[in-house]
Amino acid sequence: MQRFIFSLVLILANRNIIAQTSESSYNSVYYSGSQTENASTAKPVTLSTEPFTGPNKVAYDALIDLVRQAQLATDLEPQNILLQQFLDQSGPFLQSHPQEILLWQLRAVAAISLENPPAGYEAGQKLLASGQADSNPKIARLLAQLKEKGWLDKASVAAIQRQADYLKSYHWLLGTWHVSGSFKLVLLMPKVKINRDERFVLTDSVIEGYEINNPKDIALIENASSRGGAMAKKLAYAMPPEALEIMRGTRPDMRGTIDDSGQIKWEMAAGNSANWTPVLSCETDKNQGSMKLLIDMTGKGSPKDAATLLFTKGGAMDMSESGNQDVPQAKKRKK
């Protein structure tokens, strides 16, 4: 697809610009339609509105050559570097020469290839304003591609860019973390040790955490809950369906909302339930890849009932052992 997009626009550049260096090349006219179409009936599309001379001509030729080098590059990385250079250098040039439609086409191509929504939106608006979409199939196709990506709508582009900014700022947090700690849910029950993984994903401005539990622990608790009656009450694991979904990792047990200042306000499903309670405190160390959260597992909102959970980047749970070592085991009845 990327190569096809390049060819789409650069056919025009190669025919009328790159192969020519005379002043007339910058006033050349490309006739839209098929190659067999009579030139006298084809609709002219002006590629350049002014003849360039001196430094402007050198700058224009340099921009075209950057895209030409990108088209000839065989590897993606050098191609992207050249395209980014083109975007960086063509911006200031177009501020002085905003009517250069060919450069706007090339900027649209570069934006699509580099996944740069703001640059794509700007180029799309310029191409729309040129009024050449009806007469130039190449411009029409570029606009169609920009529309498919949602890059012709300002609000959509803003949302896409905001999400990209979030990903750039919080990429260190996303992925799998190992969680360790202990807490007590029921007064007369022993402490429950936590030894599992947590997977964080980003959705809009919310970071959601999903438990990755040992399958043995999940099976134990599901069996205890399904039995019901005295056994389930004794084990204190008669959990609602939402809590079981959390254990299976199909429902988030943590969520962090990114506010306007960029701070994350963490909440956790208290007591392994569907009720959210704010995290009391959070200390992060990006360089060490660690987080320490003080969490009220009971949902009472009291620091004395809080548990300290340590998050370390990179999953480290040993699935061969039980994650919650102190989960009480059901005793066999004596015959």
Topology:
Elements: H1 2-18, E1 29-31, E2 44-46, H2 54-72, H3 76-96, H4 101-114, H5 117-130, H6 137-148, H7 154-170, E3 175-183, E4 192-203, E5 206-212, H8 215-227, H9 229-235, H10 241-248, E6 254-258, E7 264-269, E8 276-278, E9 281-285, E10 290-296, E11 306-313
Helix pairs in contact: 1-2, 1-4, 2-3, 3-4, 4-5, 4-6, 5-6, 8-9
Question: Can you characterise this structure?
Answer:
Helix content is 42%, strand content 20%. The protein has helices spanning 2-18, 54-72, 76-96, 101-114, 117-130, 137-148, 154-170, 215-227, 229-235, 241-248, and strands at residues 29-31, 44-46, 175-183, 192-203, 206-212, 254-258, 264-269, 276-278, 281-285, 290-296, 306-313. The chain folds into two domains: 2-164, no CATH class; 171-313, Quinohemoprotein amine dehydrogenase alpha subunit, domain 2 (Lipocalin, Beta Barrel). The longest helix is centred in the N-terminal third of the chain and has 21 residues, at 76-96. Residues 7-47, 231-238 and 318-335 have low confidence and may be disordered. It contains ten helices and eleven strands. Strand 9 and strand 10 (290-296) form a beta hairpin. The termini are far apart. With 335 residues, the chain is an alpha+beta fold. The strands form two sheets. A nine-stranded antiparallel β-sheet has the order 8-7-6-5-4-3-11-10-9. It has a two-stranded antiparallel sheet with strand order 1-2. Helix 1 (2-18) runs antiparallel to helix 2, helix 3 (76-96) runs antiparallel to helix 4 (101-114) and helix 8 (215-227) packs across helix 9 (229-235).
